[in-house]
Amino acid sequence: MARLDIDTLTKRYGDFHAVRDVSLQVADGEFLVLLGPSGCGKTTTLRMVAGFIEPTGGSVRLGGRDVTILPPWKRNAGMVFQSYALFPHLTVAQNVAFGLEMRKLGKTEIGKRVEEALALVRLSGFGGRLPRQLSGGQQQRVALARALAIRPDVLLLDEPLSNLDAKLRQEVRVEIRELQQKLGLTTVMVTHDQEEALTMADRLVVMSEGAVRQIGTQRDLYERPADRFVADFVGRSTFFEGMVEAPGRFRTDGGLALACSGGAQGRGSLALRPERVGIAQTPWIGLDNSLPGTVEFVSYLGALIDIHVRLSPRDRLIVHVANREDGFAPEVGQAVHVGWPASAGQIFNE
Amino acid sequence: MSETVAIRGSAVAAPRRRGEGLTATTLIGPATVFVAVSLFAPLSILLRYSLNDFDKATKTMIAAVTPANYIRFFTDAYYTSALATTIEVALLSTIVCLVLGFPLAYVVARTQSRFKNLLIMAIVLPLFVGNAVRAAGWMVIFGNKGFVNAGLMGLGVIEKPLEIMFTEKAVIIGIIAVTLPFMVLSLQSVIEGIDRAVEEAAFSLGAPPLTMFRRVLWPLALPGVLAGTILTFILAMNAYATPYLLGGPLFKMMAPLVYNTFTQQSNWPFGGAIAFILMAVTLTLTVAANLLIQRRTKR
Description:
The structure holds 2 protein chains of 2 kinds. Chain A is of the alpha+beta class. Chain A has 2 domains: 226 residues, P-loop containing nucleotide triphosphate hydrolases (Rossmann fold, 3-Layer(aba) Sandwich); 114 residues, CATH 2.40.50.100. Chain A has 8 helices and 20 strands. In chain A, a hairpin with a 2-residue loop joins strand 11 and strand 12. In chain A, helix 2 packs across helix 3, helix 2 runs parallel beside helix 4 and helix 3 crosses helix 4. Chain B is 77% helix and 2% strand. Chain B has 12 helices and 2 strands. Chain B is globular and about 75 Å long. Chain B starts with a helix and ends with a helix. The interface between A and B is medium-sized, with 28 and 18 residues.
């Protein structure tokens, strides 16, 4: 395993910047997740690290070795593909052995390491099967074993879970994460699924339009989003459009006067996490903000209830309430009061 | 509740399936009848003829059951050399066709270009021209005073004209022009079905391009390779107009030989025998080659 340094990596197709000046450092044994909507450049970045795409500018260093222009077969980067990309004409054991044969290892050594790798993903005894005789989850684990068997300097995961069903995905997430920690694998994963990203990563990189928006831990991204895009993409937020009239006072376009903290004077938006807002039948006392409203929409999500409250003709607020026995669960049309401290909101100036 | 649904479902499904069977019969029926009548009937008649005797003086067929025609073919060097030439030309054409066709098929299969359909049309384009017309064109190009030689000599590259016309080379070139589209299309349809990521996986595991080709792409493309080589080989074995026009009067391949024996010598029994030998050799070689390739890859 090794550290990975990406410096001002850029990929241009004509006038189009697929990736723009991306710089990342992944420490030895760290799990980094590239997160973003489709077309944000996260996969292009990963493929430049793997060597499938030649960068227009910048550099990739793997364990101190400059691999920017090295072809993929000289990089020692283990990759797991979205489609798994198992060799359909080879057995599971032959699939896992492929990379070892390329490294010209002896037969006994290959046999030993294939066994090890299959044991690691709990597929001992499946070596003689063909990929098509396995379930999707098992194929995914073979792909992982194949990438791990070569003892790569870095493990690259390209949306590895997107072809699994929801229940299995949750299990495999934990499984990959535990394996990664146990083996101390330097790992870069690409995903558009933020829940997946939050579960697995040590640190996350949020990308959009080819550029890095923010790098940080789960808590950093959620509590202190760098900009409106991150606040919107990671977790949920209600955005009030309006302007900061005076320090600590935000006036929405719908005419609401809200207490806020931070932000420069002028136009901007106030972001509010749904679970930081209280909802009750009576006005809130002791909170900076207490506003009357009408419940417009209620959606029961199991662990929590999603409530949309109309505050003014132009302002609607999303509130999440934990689904408790004694909790307050309003109905559509009911008059309610919502409240939150000024510090719960975050201002993004335009 | 679910049980009732299941029972009702199967009750509905049964008569419907019978209907489907009937439809299938109607659909494949005409083609089957056509093939049976147009292929097997003449073949059986020809097989019967090939066992007859022939009176050279009167040029008439005499009913008999004799292997004489087959024995004559295999004991006369003139005919066995024609068979050897045919096999040689067919094998060479097939190999060259595969070597030329694979890269082309790969590019067509992998291209993201919106002109892909145009590209495929361009590959099929040679088939829009009849064999005889194309061969006549080649004659103009390859002749001693043809386009190639006149050009090269005019430029001073060569002093004497290259002998292309009426050689095996000309015949092979002519045959490839016909068979290449079949090869490319067979390969392309199979390569298109191979996940691009599989190639990348091989690269990321340390395989350089040639190794990737040998270990991954080739074995996965094998069904296309088989289909393409079978088509090419059969077409080359049975080529008529190309060897006739480009090979010249002294160049002997089996298909022109069959035709001459029928039309010029009116020797139907011997012509039938040659036709059957050509067919048997083609089939045997094709099947043998396929078995060989398939066994090789399994190992």
